[in-house]
Design goal:
Length: about 70
């Protein structure tokens, strides 16, 4: 039995709603988008952005690992 480290992340939507997901720390951006899409029933045209304290929202590259 492996003990993978997990984290709970909040995915915020443009309409100010959010969903909480429990993901493995080695999850890729594509995996997080897939999980959010499934939970929110939003389809496939999703992007993941980082929300910065200065209000900036740069896109997270799809191939990036966390």
């Amino acid at each position: 039995m492996s003990s993978a480290v997990s984290a709970v992340v909040r995915i915020y939507c443009a309409d100010h709603t959010y969903v909480s997901l429990k993901v493995r720390m080695d999850a890729t951006v594509n995996k997080i988008i897939e999980l959010a899409s499934t939970k929110l029933n939003l389809g496939e045209d999703l992007v993941l952005c980082e929300v910065k304290s200065n209000g900036g929202t740069p896109r997270v590259p799809p191939k990036r690992d966390f």
